[in-house]
């Protein structure tokens, strides 16, 4: 998304907020004088990838810095790897999304490479339509020193929960599919062991805060419709492409309810900038540690 496109997508208030954010990131990066890592958290459909792309285009155009944009979604394990984890731990790990379904070793490797200014770095990409990573030969590469790295993800930055909070299921899905709590406790262990150490790379954290989990269904439905349009544009009509129905989306988002609701409670205190959104993703207010 170009800066010009953003001026159409965002309303005037949003545009001004995000311009100020971009300028703040540049100011912080220049003071640090090394690769600057920015994390964006927000529930599904909150606008994380749109914001990441806008910040990248704006910073490149107006400040001529090198920016790498990553999505946590591009670091999913392969189907085979998730199936193996499902056999060893719990069947629900076959479905990508929650902590424990990402290649955290690859995230760490990519971060370290991006922080070293002397080598070419491949940026992983995941094919959601076929539920496997794209071949490495098709991954984009960055050969120039990287000034700013932006990573966005629905669970990025979320800490693990206390064990006591995991005892009761949060919805019918957990009650039926994870009655003994093995899956949710394993997700929590992955967060503590494999994800939280990665957060230490971050220099600045941003949250796009949904008003409640109730918005996620509609936002996720919009995402799926956009994905369908993208796949049709890139690959044409193919019978092996699977797009979720409304009923499947309602079921699917229950995988994320526990951590999404937890994030709404704890992430505002952990972030440098929190944009409070309404159900149409308009900014209602801003909480900033810079103020």
Features:
291 residues; six-stranded mixed sheet; Rossmann fold; 10 helices; alpha/beta
Q: What is the CATH domain class?
A: Alpha Beta
Residue stretches low in confidence (pLDDT < 50, at least 5 long) are: none
Strand content: 5-15%
* Extended strand count: 10
Looking at the structure, the CATH topology is Rossmann fold
N- to C-terminal distance: 29 Å
Q: Total domains, how many?
A: 1
The CATH architecture name reads 3-Layer(aba) Sandwich
CATH level 4 superfamily = P-loop containing nucleotide triphosphate hydrolases
The strand order across the widest sheet is: 2-7-1-8-9-10
| Fraction in helix | 40-55%
- Number of helices in the DSSP assignment: 10
Structure in words:
By secondary structure, this protein is an alpha/beta fold. The protein has 10 helices and 10 strands. The protein has one domain (3-213, 258-280): P-loop containing nucleotide triphosphate hydrolases (Rossmann fold, 3-Layer(aba) Sandwich), CATH 3.40.50.300. It has a 6-stranded mixed β-sheet, sandwiched between helices. Strands 3-6 form a two-stranded antiparallel ribbon. The mean pLDDT is 91.
Topology record:
Layout: H1 3-9, H2 12-32, E1 36-42, H3 48-63, E2 67-71, H4 79-88, H5 104-115, E3 121-122, E4 126-127, E5 132-133, E6 141-142, E7 148-153, H6 172-177, H7 182-199, E8 204-209, H8 216-235, H9 246-252, H10 257-270, E9 273-277, E10 283-288
Parallel strand pairs: 1-7, 1-8, 2-7, 8-9
Antiparallel strand pairs: 3-6, 4-5, 9-10
């Amino acid at each position: 998304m170009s800066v010009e496109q953003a001026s159409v997508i965002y309303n005037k208030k949003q545009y001004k907020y995000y311009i100020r954010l971009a300028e703040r990131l540049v100011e912080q990066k220049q003071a640090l004088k090394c690769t600057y890592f920015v994390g964006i958290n927000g529930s599904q459909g909150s606008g994380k990838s749109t914001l990441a792309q806008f910040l990248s285009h704006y910073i490149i155009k107006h400040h001529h810095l090198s920016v790498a944009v990553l999505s946590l979604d591009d670091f999913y394990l392969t189907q085979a790897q998730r199936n193996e984890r499902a056999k060893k731990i719990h069947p629900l790990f076959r479905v990508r999304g929650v902590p424990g379904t990402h290649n955290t070793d690859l995230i760490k490797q990519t971060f370290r490479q991006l922080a070293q200014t002397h080598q070419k770095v491949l940026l992983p990409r995941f094919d959601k339509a076929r539920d496997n990573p794209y071949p490495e030969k098709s991954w984009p590469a960055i050969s120039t020193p990287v000034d700013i790295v932006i990573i966005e993800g629905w669970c990025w930055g979320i800490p693990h929960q206390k064990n006591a909070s995991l005892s009761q299921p949060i919805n019918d899905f957990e009650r039926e599919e994870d009655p003994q709590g093995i899956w949710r406790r394993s997700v929590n262990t992955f967060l503590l062991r494999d994800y939280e150490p990665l957060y230490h790379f971050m220099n600045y954290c941003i949250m796009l805060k949904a008003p409640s989990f109730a918005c996620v269904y509609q936002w996720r439905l919009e995402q799926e419709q956009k994905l369908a349009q993208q796949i049709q544009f890139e690959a044409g009509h193919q019978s092996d492409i699977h797009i979720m129905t409304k009923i499947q989306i309602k079921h699917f988002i229950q995988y994320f309810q526990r951590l999404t609701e937890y994030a709404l409670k704890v992430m505002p205190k952990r972030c440098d900038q929190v944009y409070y959104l309404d159900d149409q993703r308009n900014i209602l207010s801003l909480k900033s540690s810079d103020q």
